[in-house]
């Protein structure tokens, strides 16, 4: 069957989610809710969708099977809760909400209602990341003892001296929630559960709402691996996103030294004093037609799995990842890092038993 979808959000919802969901053959995007602008009008015309300014009005009138939402994290909770309570499946932007408590509430409703639910952690969809995952699973460098992560760039808001929610921690901004929510997800995607972390946050004068721009963190994984993380979103020189995995039989390096967020990653294997660039072309990427944000092609992969879940009730018992429980886990790590507690809880599978 064709799954009807409504989009909520006039930022990434408009230029990211709308093109991504419009690419899926068994998906029909009905409308989008967002601020009036010439750009929004052009997108609506291009994709032949209606525009609303009130998301509740849109949902009452359109009665979609699902929504895809990308709004300020502080406001996602109300929208997603309303949708789930009205039996509407949800594809959400990260971070899921601004607290563990509210994220847990959404997870419980989704589980109780048996509704499809996914969250936009896109980095593991990149071919080089998929290849790296396989190499780790196949123990290409033996037992991994350490990982070093360096992620530095100058964020758009800081570069342009803009005062928005993205530099306001109370609304879901700051480097930890806005950017390293991806980091927490991919760290556990590669290496399993984090059981301990120590974190120091700092803020640049460029951050007009005083949200943190720098992260120094050390983590310990359940398998004994140690990690060192350095993030700086106020660095105007030499943008980098590098993950180095050190194992007993060599080293794997995933790196991007361009200003592009998801493109131009390269994967290298180091062992026996040799360096080999690893080909990842076997993981195909479906490129949407048209001139879109580079992230759209990876969001499309997630959106496709979400629509498949909506179409196949049998998936209700197994679901698809990343889902709201993945978002909840990331929020637990974010909250712990902010409070500098250090000890991490491992989430139970049965959300109904969580107190």
Question: What does the model show?
Answer:
This protein has 355 residues and is α/β, with parallel strands linked by helices. The chain has two domains: 3-122 and 295-320, Rossmann fold (3-Layer(aba) Sandwich), CATH 3.40.50; 123-277, Dihydrodipicolinate Reductase, domain 2 (2-Layer Sandwich). The protein has helices at 12-22, 38-47, 55-62, 73-85, 100-113, 127-137, 156-159, 175-191, 296-311, 324-339; strands spanning 3-8, 27-33, 50-52, 66-69, 89-92, 117-119, 144-152, 194-202, 214-221, 226-232, 240-247, 250-256, 266-271, 274-277. An eight-stranded mixed beta sheet has the order 8-9-10-7-11-12-13-14. The protein has a six-stranded parallel beta sheet with strand order 3-2-1-4-5-6, with helices on both faces. A hairpin with a 2-residue loop joins strand 11 (240-247) and strand 12. The radius of gyration is 20 Å and the shape is globular. The relative contact order is 0.16. Residues 345-349 have low confidence and may be disordered.
């Amino acid at each position: 069957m064709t799954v009807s979808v409504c989009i909520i959000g006039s930022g990434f919802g408009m230029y990211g989610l709308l093109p991504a969901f419009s690419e899926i053959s068994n998906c029909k995007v009905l409308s989008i809710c967002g601020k009036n602008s010439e750009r929004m009008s052009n997108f609506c015309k291009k994709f032949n969708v209606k525009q609303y300014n009130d998301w509740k009005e849109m949902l009452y009138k359109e009665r979609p099977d699902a929504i895809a939402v990308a709004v300020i994290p502080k406001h996602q909770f109300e929208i997603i809760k309303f949708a789930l309570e009205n039996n509407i499946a949800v594809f959400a932007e990260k971070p899921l909400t601004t607290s563990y408590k509210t994220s847990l509430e959404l997870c419980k409703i989704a589980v109780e209602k048996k509704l499809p639910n996914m969250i936009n952690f896109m980095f593991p969809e990149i071919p080089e990341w998929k290849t790296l995952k396989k190499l780790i699973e196949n123990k290409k460098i033996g037992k991994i003892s350490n990982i070093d992560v360096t992620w530095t760039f100058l964020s758009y808001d800081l570069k342009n001296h803009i005062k928005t929610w993205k530099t306001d921690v109370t609304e879901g901004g700051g480097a930890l929630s806005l950017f390293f929510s991806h980091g927490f997800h991919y760290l556990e995607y590669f290496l399993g559960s984090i059981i301990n972390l120590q974190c120091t946050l700092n803020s640049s004068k460029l951050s007009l709402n005083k949200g943190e721009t720098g992260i120094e963190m050390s983590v310990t994984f359940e398998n004994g691996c140690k990690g060192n993380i350095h993030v700086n979103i106020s660095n105007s020189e030499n943008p980098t996103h590098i993950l180095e995995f050190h194992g007993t039989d060599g080293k794997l390096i995933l790196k991007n030294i361009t200003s592009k967020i998801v493109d131009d990653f390269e994967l290298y294997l180091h062992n026996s004093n040799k360096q080999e660039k690893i080909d990842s072309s076997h993981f195909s990427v479906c490129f949407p037609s048209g001139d879109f944000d580079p992230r759209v092609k990876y969001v499309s992969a997630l959106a496709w799995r979400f629509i498949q879940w909506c179409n196949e009730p049998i998936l209700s018992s197994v679901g698809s990842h990343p889902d709201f429980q993945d978002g909840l886990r990331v929020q637990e790590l974010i909250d712990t890092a902010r409070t500098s507690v250090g000890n991490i809880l491992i989430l139970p599978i049965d959300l109904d038993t969580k107190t």
